[in-house]
Write a structure and sequence with these properties.
This is Dihydrofolate reductase family protein. InterPro entries: DHFR-like_dom_sf (IPR024072), RibDG_C (IPR002734), Riboflavin_Biosynth_HTPR (IPR050765). It holds the Pfam family RibD_C. This protein is an alpha/beta fold and 201 residues long. 22% of the residues lie in helices and 25% in strands. It is built from 5 helices and 8 strands; from the N terminus they run E-H-E-H-H-E-E-H-E-H-E-E-E. It has an 8-stranded mixed beta sheet with strand order 4-3-2-5-1-6-8-7.
Length: 201
């Protein structure tokens, strides 16, 4: 069974929107695009590279797919991620796209949750959900996420799309590994572990 792994960059207050650049995603008037690079370090890059070691595909929503497809095919080949991103298979969930131009891309058909269940049961390595906040929340609601790999950076944005937004499904998490880089970024790997429990002091 393949694992669905949500790989996301977050601010300390949980914002995931537009980490990569000022023009990446200005939806809802977001003005903080490009917040990640100033607070990243070499250890963050090494951790992200490790996220792909046992994965051979990505699962993307429309917006993230379009951002990636406009960048990676012509990205600097000296960047070690360029070949990896272009060669990996991309599964795309979209209600509006009818064709995909980026190499190794497949448009999912029908209900997204059903399509992802079929992917999980197919042959292959793990599948990384990168960015794609709306898609990630759909997968969380349907209990399809097997693992979270998060970098939590030392910056507060105050506005923007959050991975765990209001209404997120209450879920207990089992920490697999948690470390802090020299620049203060928390690199955490967590697995869903049933429902939260509650107690008092």
């Amino acid at each position: 069974m393949r694992k669905i792994i949500v790989c996301t960059f977050l601010t300390l207050d949980g914002v995931m929107q537009a980490p990569g650049g000022p023009d990446e995603d200005s939806g809802s008037g977001f003005k903080h695009g490009g917040w990640q690079k100033p607070v990243a370090d070499d250890e963050v890059g090494e951790a992200i590279a490790g996220w792909y070691e046992r994965s051979d595909a990505m699962l993307l929503g429309r917006k993230t797919y379009e951002i990636f497809a406009s960048y990676w095919p012509t990205a600097d080949p000296a960047n070690p991620f360029t070949e990896r991103m272009n060669s990996m298979h991309k599964y795309v969930a979209s209600r509006t796209l009818t064709s995909l131009e980026w190499q190794n891309s497949t448009l999912l058909e029908g209900d997204v949750a059903d399509a992802v269940r079929r992917l999980k049961a197919s042959d292959g390595g793990n599948i990384n959900v990168v960015g794609s906040g709306d898609l990630a929340q759909t997968l969380m609601r349907d209990g399809l996420v097997d693992e979270y790999r998060l970098t939590i950076h030392p910056v507060i944005i105050g506005t923007g799309k959050r991975l765990f937004a209001d209404g997120a499904t209450p879920t207990a998490l089992e920490p697999v590994s948690v470390s802090t880089t020299k620049g203060g970024t928390i690199v955490g790997v967590y697995r869903p572990n049933g429902k939260p429990t509650y107690d008092s002091y």
